[in-house]
Design a protein that fits this description.
Layout: H1 2-11, H2 14-22, E1 35-42, H3 46-54, H4 59-66, E2 71-76, H5 88-101, E3 105-111, H6 118-134, E4 140-147, E5 153-158
Length: 168
């Protein structure tokens, strides 16, 4: 009995525990529409992404394109206004909590502008992707895109079955 309880504790994420123990309002069971998790990575252009892949960084994003068959699109980036610095852990924790609640749309902004933070950003994307795919309340599509300096190419990584608009 005790070992079963220990296994259950390991399987249920901290965000799930917060939902269960906090008696938060969760998504109704009848709502079967898929959710969308959008992850924005600020400060990482397409050339930067390809360069760090060659250097062995951002391994999970690379895995999305190779094993999960995510499509890699490039587009001309727009300059984004600077947002106030926030703790990455707090941002990811809040997103994991919203996924555990079964929110239909979850948007996360991660900052890759500080050079040595690439592994932390990649790890955060991994945690969010896993939580979205393991969610008990809703199935999620996960989109990853970047914003970079104006005039440089940004990227989007989208699941293979994503319908893209055609024409203008």
């Amino acid at each position: 009995m005790e070992s079963m309880l220990r296994r259950a504790v390991r399987v249920i994420t901290p965000a799930e525990w917060r939902v269960v123990l906090g008696q938060h309002e969760t998504t109704r069971v009848k709502d079967t529409r898929a959710g969308l998790l959008i992850i924005r990575i600020d400060g990482l252009s397409t050339p930067d992404l390809e360069r760090v892949w060659k250097q062995g960084y951002m391994a999970f994003l690379r895995r999305l394109t190779l094993k999960e068959r995510y499509a890699h699109y490039s587009f001309l980036g727009e300059a984004r206004r600077r947002e106030p610095k926030r703790s990455r852990r707090r941002i990811v924790s809040k997103a994991l909590f919203n996924i555990a609640l079964g929110r239909r749309l979850v948007h996360v902004a991660l900052n890759a502008r500080e050079g040595k933070r690439l592994r932390a950003v990649d790890r955060s994307v991994l945690y969010l992707w896993r939580a979205a795919h393991r969610s008990a309340r809703r199935t999620y599509d996960v989109w990853v895109y970047s914003t970079s300096a104006e005039g440089t190419s940004s990227f989007a990584l989208l699941p293979p079955d994503t319908a893209l608009p055609t024409g203008r």
